[in-house]
Design brief:
The complex is a heterodimer of chains A (115) and B (115).
Chain A: E1 3-6, E2 11-14, E3 19-21, E4 23-26, E5 32-38, E6 44-50, E7 56-59, E8 62-65, E9 75-77, E10 86-93, E11 104-105, E12 109-114
Parallel strand pairs in A: 2-12
Antiparallel strand pairs in A: 1-4, 3-9, 5-6, 5-10, 7-8, 8-9, 10-11, 10-12
Chain B: E1 4-7, E2 10-13, E3 19-25, E4 31-38, E5 42-49, E6 56-57, E7 64-66, E8 76-78, E9 87-94, E10 105-106, E11 110-114
Parallel strand pairs in B: 2-11
Antiparallel strand pairs in B: 1-3, 3-8, 4-5, 4-9, 5-6, 7-8, 9-10, 9-11
Classes of the chains: A mainly beta (115), B mainly beta (115).
Protein backbone atom coordinates (compact mmCIF):
# COMPACT_ATOMS: atom_id res chain seq x y z
CA UNK A 1 0.00 0.00 0.00
CA UNK A 2 0.88 3.66 -0.07
CA UNK A 3 3.14 4.74 2.77
CA UNK A 4 5.81 7.16 3.91
CA UNK A 5 8.91 6.35 5.93
CA UNK A 6 10.40 9.31 7.69
CA UNK A 7 13.63 9.81 9.55
CA UNK A 8 13.02 9.38 13.23
CA UNK A 9 14.00 12.08 15.63
CA UNK A 10 14.43 13.96 17.64
CA UNK A 11 16.91 16.12 15.77
CA UNK A 12 18.81 18.73 17.75
CA UNK A 13 20.89 21.37 15.97
CA UNK A 14 22.64 24.61 16.72
CA UNK A 15 21.44 27.76 15.01
CA UNK A 16 22.82 28.16 11.46
CA UNK A 17 23.49 24.42 11.09
CA UNK A 18 22.47 22.49 7.98
CA UNK A 19 19.31 20.41 8.23
CA UNK A 20 18.32 17.24 6.41
CA UNK A 21 15.26 15.18 7.28
CA UNK A 22 14.97 12.04 5.19
CA UNK A 23 11.70 10.86 3.68
CA UNK A 24 11.10 7.91 1.38
CA UNK A 25 7.83 6.67 0.02
CA UNK A 26 6.07 3.65 -1.42
CA UNK A 27 3.20 4.30 -3.76
CA UNK A 28 1.27 2.79 -6.62
CA UNK A 29 1.02 5.37 -9.34
CA UNK A 30 2.33 8.91 -9.29
CA UNK A 31 2.03 10.54 -5.90
CA UNK A 32 2.15 14.18 -4.93
CA UNK A 33 4.53 14.78 -2.03
CA UNK A 34 4.28 17.24 0.83
CA UNK A 35 6.08 18.52 3.87
CA UNK A 36 3.92 19.86 6.69
CA UNK A 37 5.16 21.65 9.81
CA UNK A 38 3.52 21.69 13.23
CA UNK A 39 4.58 24.39 15.68
CA UNK A 40 3.97 23.77 19.39
CA UNK A 41 0.27 23.79 20.26
CA UNK A 42 -0.86 24.36 16.69
CA UNK A 43 -2.29 22.43 13.78
CA UNK A 44 -0.34 21.41 10.71
CA UNK A 45 0.66 23.93 8.05
CA UNK A 46 1.76 23.13 4.55
CA UNK A 47 5.46 23.93 4.19
CA UNK A 48 6.07 22.86 0.59
CA UNK A 49 4.97 20.38 -2.03
CA UNK A 50 5.94 18.77 -5.33
CA UNK A 51 3.51 17.14 -7.69
CA UNK A 52 5.74 15.37 -10.21
CA UNK A 53 9.18 13.84 -10.54
CA UNK A 54 12.15 16.26 -10.42
CA UNK A 55 9.98 19.09 -9.09
CA UNK A 56 11.55 21.10 -6.28
CA UNK A 57 9.31 22.56 -3.61
CA UNK A 58 10.63 25.48 -1.60
CA UNK A 59 9.42 27.82 1.12
CA UNK A 60 10.96 29.80 4.01
CA UNK A 61 14.45 28.56 3.06
CA UNK A 62 13.39 24.91 3.09
CA UNK A 63 13.69 22.79 -0.04
CA UNK A 64 12.79 19.27 -1.12
CA UNK A 65 13.20 17.57 -4.49
CA UNK A 66 10.90 14.82 -5.74
CA UNK A 67 13.26 11.98 -6.70
CA UNK A 68 11.40 9.19 -8.44
CA UNK A 69 14.50 7.05 -8.96
CA UNK A 70 15.16 6.88 -5.22
CA UNK A 71 11.50 7.35 -4.15
CA UNK A 72 12.61 10.14 -1.86
CA UNK A 73 11.60 13.67 -0.85
CA UNK A 74 14.20 14.78 1.67
CA UNK A 75 13.75 18.12 3.41
CA UNK A 76 16.76 20.46 3.61
CA UNK A 77 17.60 23.88 4.93
CA UNK A 78 21.00 25.49 4.72
CA UNK A 79 20.88 27.47 7.96
CA UNK A 80 18.27 26.72 10.61
CA UNK A 81 16.93 29.22 13.11
CA UNK A 82 15.51 28.80 16.59
CA UNK A 83 12.10 29.62 15.13
CA UNK A 84 12.30 26.48 12.96
CA UNK A 85 11.86 24.31 16.05
CA UNK A 86 8.78 22.22 15.30
CA UNK A 87 7.60 18.78 14.21
CA UNK A 88 7.94 18.08 10.49
CA UNK A 89 5.75 15.59 8.65
CA UNK A 90 6.31 14.10 5.23
CA UNK A 91 3.14 13.06 3.40
CA UNK A 92 2.00 11.67 0.08
CA UNK A 93 -1.20 11.66 -1.88
CA UNK A 94 -2.12 9.35 -4.73
CA UNK A 95 -5.16 10.60 -6.59
CA UNK A 96 -7.00 7.52 -7.69
CA UNK A 97 -10.45 6.13 -7.09
CA UNK A 98 -10.96 5.19 -3.50
CA UNK A 99 -8.01 7.21 -2.14
CA UNK A 100 -8.74 10.46 -3.98
CA UNK A 101 -7.49 13.41 -1.95
CA UNK A 102 -6.30 11.34 1.01
CA UNK A 103 -2.95 12.10 2.63
CA UNK A 104 -0.66 9.45 4.11
CA UNK A 105 1.69 10.84 6.75
CA UNK A 106 5.03 9.81 8.11
CA UNK A 107 5.49 9.61 11.87
CA UNK A 108 6.95 13.08 12.19
CA UNK A 109 10.39 14.38 13.13
CA UNK A 110 10.85 16.68 16.09
CA UNK A 111 13.42 19.41 15.36
CA UNK A 112 14.90 21.51 18.16
CA UNK A 113 17.27 24.35 17.31
CA UNK A 114 19.42 25.86 20.06
CA UNK A 115 20.77 29.41 19.93
CA UNK B 1 -11.63 34.58 7.62
CA UNK B 2 -11.37 32.02 10.41
CA UNK B 3 -10.48 29.05 8.23
CA UNK B 4 -11.21 25.92 10.24
CA UNK B 5 -12.51 25.99 13.78
CA UNK B 6 -12.71 23.01 16.09
CA UNK B 7 -14.51 22.62 19.40
CA UNK B 8 -13.86 21.89 22.13
CA UNK B 9 -10.18 22.74 22.44
CA UNK B 10 -9.76 19.98 24.95
CA UNK B 11 -11.97 17.53 26.81
CA UNK B 12 -11.68 14.90 29.51
CA UNK B 13 -14.29 12.20 29.08
CA UNK B 14 -15.33 9.16 31.07
CA UNK B 15 -15.17 5.84 29.24
CA UNK B 16 -18.51 4.81 27.80
CA UNK B 17 -19.72 8.36 27.26
CA UNK B 18 -20.78 9.73 23.91
CA UNK B 19 -18.86 12.69 22.51
CA UNK B 20 -19.10 14.83 19.39
CA UNK B 21 -16.15 16.85 18.15
CA UNK B 22 -17.16 19.78 16.03
CA UNK B 23 -15.47 21.11 12.93
CA UNK B 24 -16.54 24.07 10.82
CA UNK B 25 -14.83 25.63 7.82
CA UNK B 26 -15.70 28.90 6.13
CA UNK B 27 -13.71 28.42 2.94
CA UNK B 28 -16.48 26.60 1.03
CA UNK B 29 -14.18 23.64 0.59
CA UNK B 30 -15.71 20.49 -0.85
CA UNK B 31 -13.58 17.91 0.95
CA UNK B 32 -13.15 17.47 4.70
CA UNK B 33 -11.14 15.03 6.80
CA UNK B 34 -10.69 13.84 10.36
CA UNK B 35 -7.28 12.66 11.59
CA UNK B 36 -6.00 11.49 14.93
CA UNK B 37 -2.45 12.22 16.00
CA UNK B 38 -0.67 9.87 18.34
CA UNK B 39 2.93 10.15 19.48
CA UNK B 40 5.22 8.13 17.24
CA UNK B 41 2.45 7.30 14.78
CA UNK B 42 1.98 10.55 12.93
CA UNK B 43 -1.50 11.39 11.67
CA UNK B 44 -3.95 8.70 10.66
CA UNK B 45 -7.13 9.28 8.71
CA UNK B 46 -10.35 8.37 10.51
CA UNK B 47 -13.07 9.44 8.08
CA UNK B 48 -13.35 11.73 5.11
CA UNK B 49 -15.96 13.43 2.96
CA UNK B 50 -15.29 14.41 -0.63
CA UNK B 51 -18.45 16.50 -0.86
CA UNK B 52 -21.53 17.34 1.19
CA UNK B 53 -23.77 14.33 1.59
CA UNK B 54 -21.02 11.72 1.19
CA UNK B 55 -18.59 10.17 3.66
CA UNK B 56 -15.99 7.42 3.62
CA UNK B 57 -13.82 5.40 5.96
CA UNK B 58 -10.13 6.06 6.44
CA UNK B 59 -7.41 3.96 8.02
CA UNK B 60 -8.81 3.84 11.57
CA UNK B 61 -12.62 4.30 11.45
CA UNK B 62 -13.69 1.85 14.16
CA UNK B 63 -15.51 3.51 17.06
CA UNK B 64 -16.10 6.74 15.15
CA UNK B 65 -18.87 8.06 12.92
CA UNK B 66 -19.28 11.22 10.85
CA UNK B 67 -21.93 13.08 8.95
CA UNK B 68 -21.79 15.79 6.30
CA UNK B 69 -25.19 17.45 6.12
CA UNK B 70 -23.79 20.64 4.58
CA UNK B 71 -20.57 22.02 3.11
CA UNK B 72 -19.31 23.77 6.23
CA UNK B 73 -19.70 21.26 9.06
CA UNK B 74 -18.17 17.84 9.60
CA UNK B 75 -18.76 16.52 13.15
CA UNK B 76 -17.00 13.44 14.47
CA UNK B 77 -18.86 11.29 17.01
CA UNK B 78 -17.51 8.76 19.44
CA UNK B 79 -20.55 6.67 20.34
CA UNK B 80 -19.01 5.05 23.42
CA UNK B 81 -15.55 6.38 24.21
CA UNK B 82 -12.70 4.06 25.19
CA UNK B 83 -9.27 4.96 26.61
CA UNK B 84 -7.54 4.03 23.33
CA UNK B 85 -9.34 6.97 21.75
CA UNK B 86 -7.25 9.36 23.85
CA UNK B 87 -5.55 11.44 21.19
CA UNK B 88 -5.35 14.79 19.49
CA UNK B 89 -7.93 15.12 16.73
CA UNK B 90 -7.44 17.33 13.71
CA UNK B 91 -10.02 18.35 11.18
CA UNK B 92 -8.83 19.36 7.72
CA UNK B 93 -10.39 20.59 4.51
CA UNK B 94 -9.45 21.09 0.88
CA UNK B 95 -11.10 22.80 -2.03
CA UNK B 96 -11.15 19.65 -4.08
CA UNK B 97 -10.52 15.99 -3.28
CA UNK B 98 -7.17 15.63 -5.01
CA UNK B 99 -5.54 17.22 -8.04
CA UNK B 100 -2.17 18.94 -8.43
CA UNK B 101 -3.38 22.22 -6.95
CA UNK B 102 -5.22 20.69 -4.01
CA UNK B 103 -3.98 21.56 -0.53
CA UNK B 104 -5.32 20.43 2.82
CA UNK B 105 -5.71 23.03 5.55
CA UNK B 106 -5.81 21.96 9.18
CA UNK B 107 -7.71 23.15 12.22
CA UNK B 108 -6.06 23.80 15.60
CA UNK B 109 -7.01 20.39 17.01
CA UNK B 110 -8.98 18.94 19.92
CA UNK B 111 -7.13 17.18 22.71
CA UNK B 112 -9.31 14.36 24.03
CA UNK B 113 -8.57 12.28 27.11
CA UNK B 114 -10.73 9.25 27.86
CA UNK B 115 -10.45 7.91 31.39
Amino acid sequence: GDSVTQMEGPVTLSEEAFLTINCTYTATGYPSLFWYVQYPGEGLQLLLKATKADDKGSNKGFEATYRKETTSFHLEKGSVQVSDSAVYFCALRVDRGSTLGRLYFGRGTQLTVWP
Amino acid sequence: IAGITQAPTSQILAAGRRMTLRCTQDMRHNAMYWYRQDLGLGLRLIHYSNTAGTTGKGEVPDGYSVSRANTDDFPLTLASAVPSQTSVYFCASSRLAGGSTDTQYFGPGTRLTVL
